[in-house]
Design goal:
The chain is mainly α. The protein has helices at residues 21-37, 57-67, 91-103, 114-126, 142-150, 198-208, 224-233, 264-269, 274-282, 297-303, 318-331, 334-347, 358-371, 380-385, 407-422, 433-447, 451-463, 471-496; strands spanning 8-11, 40-43, 107-110, 156-159, 166-171, 175-180, 188-190, 213-216, 240-243, 247-248, 314-315. Helix 17 (451-463) crosses helix 18. Bound molecules: glutamic acid (GLU). Glutamic acid (GLU) is lined by residues 12-14, 46, 198, 202, 216, 220.
């Protein structure tokens, strides 16, 4: 990069909820930019709105970033020269800058009561005007102001936005954006309890932490003129600003938690791979020059530039994420996939949580080739293969009977299939998918039935379901003893005819 200064960028979440794909999209783009340019990626926790803090969300922020590999260079738990990185630990700093703004006349104390502000808002609403402070306290006489201060009346500190003129900034992705000052509210900077609002704390920290590029979601655009004014009033150079394209749902509504934007940790629990999620999110509002869709993290870092970030809305398509996840699953080394599947089998209650017996790990390893091409997410695996881990298969015996077959016909076919399978039972190495396949095709021929019908009956007998991984490979993994026991059980179930069987 020709820029002599290494970029310093930040992800500045508020711990007011669990991070969803939209939040982490912002984090990812900042991280990619820092990694591409050799800059620094800073995590700062904006916890000034103490009432809105959601328990567990801070841990979820760390966990989400770490799961995706978005390690931060400075911030909580790792430290750094510009700490503390929690805004709640920096209150005196904000206060001193607010006092400075008051002293220079760029901010003022406002003593208006909640009742007065509520009345004002109601009147503005009735007139269909946007809610805005009417600057009553901005025009108090110095004597009156002093009197109320001495009387100990509670107050907030507000930004004294110029009444005329415009405030603009050059957005990195959208060009110049201009706001009429007359339409900007006199933003509260310090609340009556002494805590700063987002606007003041954000600007002060971005300055003190030497942030070079403020890259954030488009919902902050309307805040930026207030920030630009604050930089000016404090006598600081503003960083560069870039607001990422809005993320939309498939039906073109703004993507939000309420409209189905999943939490990152929910994606993990559903069995998405971090590398697929990173790749998918990177393509929301950014594309490499050659429009390739599948890019490893290293390739993303190599190719990511702000010049290629668009301004047009990006559509969050969950089907594309599924496709991409399936793709990444197919690319994994089988041993790697087996390792990643273990917690999903544990969550499904199919293997123990602690000290998984080696034969169970070996079983997962052996069934991976049966499912690797078929699953889109890791949770699909236990759902598709639970019958390997339990012998108490529950199914309606009627399902054993192929369409148009009688019970006797099915019983006869299953018995002959059983004999046929038994011929390969010893030694167990003979119980191979190809041999079983060939032998049972011959049997279907002899019986003059369709292979699909015979195999369908066997599939239910062996797996308890009508849709399952390839039948003969499944039998081979189960081994002769368990396979034959299951066919025997099916025969008994059908022969006893207890449940309603056609
Ligand atoms: N705390 C804000 C948030 O929760 C940060 C916005 C910004 O990046 O300036 O997203």
């Amino acid at each position: 990069m020709s820029d002599p200064i290494r970029p310093r960028v930040r992800y500045a979440p508020s711990p007011t909820g669990f991070p969803h794909v939209g939040n982490i999209h912002t984090a990812l783009f900042n991280w990619l930019f820092a990694r591409h340019t050799g800059g620094r990626f800073i995590l700062r926790i904006e916890d000034t709105d103490q009432d809105r803090i959601v328990e567990g969300s801070l841990a979820a922020i760390y966990e989400s970033l770490r799961w995706l590999g978005l390690e931060w260079d400075e911030g909580p738990e790792v430290g750094g020269p510009f700490g503390p990185y929690f805004q709640s630990e920096r209150l005196p700093i904000y206060r001193s800058y607010a006092d400075q703004l008051v002293a220079s006349g760029h901010a003022y104390r406002c003593f208006c009561s909640q009742e007065r502000l509520a009345e004002l808002r109601a009147a503005q609403e009735a007139r269909k005007e946007p809610p805005r402070y009417d600057r009553f306290c901005r025009n108090l006489s110095p004597a009156e102001r002093e009197r109320r201060l001495q009387a100990g009346e509670p107050y907030v500190i507000r930004l004294a936005v110029p009444e005329t003129g415009e405030t603009s900034f050059d957005d990195l992705f959208r060009g110049t954006i201009t706001f009429q000052n007359a339409l900007i509210d006199d933003q509260v900077l310090i609340k009556s309890d002494g805590w700063p609002t987002y606007h003041l704390a954000n600007v002060v920290d971005d300055h003190l932490m030497e942030i070079t590029h403020v890259l954030r979601g488009d919902e902050w655009i309307s805040s930026t003129p207030k920030h630009v004014l604050l930089y000016r009033f404090l006598g600081w150079d503003a960083p560069l600003f870039g607001h990422f394209p809005i993320l939309l749902t498939m039906s073109r509504a703004k993507l939000s938690k309420r409209r189905g934007a999943p939490d990152i940790l929910e994606l993990r629990a559903k069995g998405y791979l971090p590398e697929a999620v990173v790749n998918f999110l990177a393509l929301l509002g950014w594309a490499p020059e050659d429009k390739t869709e599948v890019l490893s993290c290293a390739e993303l870092i190599h190719q990511f530039t702000l010049e290629r970030v668009g301004a047009t809305p990006a559509i969050y398509n969950p089907e594309k994420l599924d496709w991409m996840n399936g793709y990444y699953i197919r690319q994994l080394a089988p041993e790697d996939l087996a390792r990643r599947l273990v917690p999903f089998y544990q969550d499904a209650g199919l293997i123990p949580r602690d000290s998984v017996p080696p034969e169970m790990l070996a079983l997962i390893g052996r069934l991976v080739p049966l499912i690797q091409e078929r699953i889109k997410t890791l949770v699909d695996a236990p759902a598709l293969t639970d019958f390997f881990f339990r012998d108490d298969l529950v199914y309606d015996p009627a399902q054993l009977m192929p369409k148009g077959w009688t019970r006797e016909q099915t019983l006869d076919a299953l018995r002959q299939a059983r004999d046929c399978l038994a011929r390969f039972a010893a030694p167990p190495e003979r119980f191979q998918a190809e041999s079983l396949d060939e032998a049972l095709r011959q049997l279907a021929d002899t019986l003059q039935v369709k292979t699909g019908q015979l195999f369908g009956a066997l599939r239910v007998a062996v797996t308890g379901r009508t849709i399952a991984p390839p039948l003969f490979q499944t039998m081979a993994v189960l081994g002769p003893t368990r396979t034959l026991a299951r066919v025997d059980r099916a025969i008994n179930l059908l022969a006893s005819g207890t449940p309603a069987v056609r």
